[in-house]
Amino acid sequence: MIDRQEPQFETATSTRIVFGAGAVDRLGSLVREHGGSRVLFVTDPGLVKAGHAARAIDLLRTAGLDVAAFDAVRPNPTDRDVEACLAVARQQPIDFFVALGGGSSIDAAKGCNFLLTNGGAMRDYKGHGRVHTPLLPLIAVPTTAGTGSEVQSFALIADEQTHMKMACGDSSAAPRVAVLDPNLATTQPKSVIAASGIDAISHAVESTVARNATPESRKFATGSFVRSARHFERVLANAHDTEAQGEMLLAASMAGISIEKSMLGIAHSLANPLTAHYNMVHGRAVGLMLPHVVRHNAADRGAAHWYASLAREASLVDDSESDEHAIDSLVAALSQFLVAGGLPTTLTTAGVQKDHLAALAEEAAAQWTARFNPREVTSADLLALYDQAFG
Ligand SMILES: [Fe+2]
Fold it and tell me: How many whole angstroms from 145 Cα to the centroid of ligand 1?
């Protein structure tokens, strides 16, 4: 059991992680500790409805902080969401951001922070380190176990016109603190738990084999996968299982730390065009493609070694089993997660048109994540993977 009052775990990467049931109660004092007095609070309409937003604002005001709020973040935020947030930010002087929500709210707050402190438009910050003034401090309070944005220096903002995702990063954009409170995750619908959780799992699997992976990033990725493989089906079965929700929040943040160091791979490259053209939720698209990507990448000896290692660490197979068998078990587990989460397992069920696949593959090849995949890929390879996923 996790004690209601005392956070159970605290560590420091570049983002300080404050973990535990009831950890959000410390929000006001954490903002003060990090020098804030006038806060822009960023969230989405779902969290307003669930009552979490009002409670968080109350905690901030009780701590004597001035609070302005932007509560209209949409899923997969675009530069339009960032501009709307910026309009609120400019109505009063602020010196601190607090974001409550999934990756969308956290990324919108980061995006707004770029424009408020440095001017210009989101596209000016594509890449890393394009700011001249450090961003204002941000505390992120994730309510889903998914993107890992709460520990990352990048904001993913889609271009409103092209729907291409822009990765805009700076070391000062990383949240000062991530508050991981499993009590906040219990009100998510199952569809959100499923899509977020499979995204976090995909981050661990992709970053383990990514070209930039290091022993340190693999430690976080493996720790993440072991946690999520054990607890994903528990949170799907019971959203109020706060112990399992806590493990999933930790898993998502650990995978986020791994990505920050190692980047991702082609499951994400293949997913982004599906989100852009078919409005598929990010996690649903990534999760659908992942088993096919693992099979494809396992032809690379190094990738095969690390996939097998993940399967063994998560006890999907005995240590004595061959790499080949271990990889089969990993693919089987990833496929089972889709079924357990009620997630689509083929592109047909996701409503994708077969004659559109070649164009989608061209777009997938242009995604930045493809550069970090362990195997070099062409648009023909990516088309073959879409074909396999078509079912
Ligand atoms: Fe993702």
Answer: 11
Ligand 1 centroid to residue 61 C-alpha, Å: 34
**Cα of 370 to ligand 1 centre, how many Å?**
13
Q: What is the DSSP string of 190-207?
A: HHHHHHHHHHHHHHHHHH
Distance 320 CA to ligand 1 centre (A): 32
- Taking phi over 0 as left and psi of -120 to 50 as alpha, with beta for the rest, 76 belongs to left
Q: What is the DSSP string of 132-177?
A: SSPPPPEEEEESSSSS-GGG-SEEEEE-TTT-PEEEEE-GGGS-SE
Task: Give the tokens for residue 355.
Answer: 């004659």
Distance 316 CA to ligand 1 centre (A): 23
- Span from the CA of 271 to the centroid of ligand 1 (angstroms): 9
Task: List residues, by chain if needed, whose CB lies under 5 Å from ion ligand 1.
Answer: 199
Tell me the CA–centroid distance for residue 284 and ligand 1, in Å: 10
Domains, the chain, with CATH or none:
9-184 (3.40.50.1970), 188-390 (1.20.1090.10)
Distance CA 210, CA 259 (A): 9
Residue 3 has pLDDT above 60, yes or no: no
Q: What is the distance between the alpha carbons of residues 22 and 3, in angstroms, rounded to a whole number?
A: 8
pTM over 0.90: yes
State the pLDDT confidence band at 163, using cuts at 50, 70 and 90: confident
Rounded CA-CA distance 137/39 in Å is: 10
